[in-house]
Amino acid sequence: MELIRQPPVLTLRRCQPRLFSQSRTTVTCLLGSKSPAKRQPPPQPSPKRLGEQILLLAAGGVVSVSITYLANVYKLPSEIKLITQRLDQQSKVIEQQLKILEKQSMKLDKVLSESVDYRREVAELRGGFQVILQKRLS
Fold this sequence. Notes:
The chain is mainly α. The chain has a domain at 1-75. Helix content is 62%, strand content 0%. The protein has helices spanning 17-20, 47-59, 67-74, 77-137.
């Protein structure tokens, strides 16, 4: 995927310039504008391009996207729904994997505690055998 050279047409809930000072991406803040009459609607990107921009910026943790605003401005509810469905599916998969990892860690803790108990019993038996051997030898 190539770098996006045009400014993304995304909206932000808050504009914080310090977040973007090191970034090559220019972000346009449309929601924070005080004069709505001066706002011009951004050009319509292709759905694929819009999805790539959302995923790139979301993956970098750069912006918080208002999905409903995007759906209203770009009139792409099916594409937005598709993106949110994919993100929901991925989050469900991650949650399932976390549950599996938690179960495995509980099993591992149980095995480790049993091995500690086993080592303790072996040490006690060795000590007992040594006492018996010393008594017989003396």
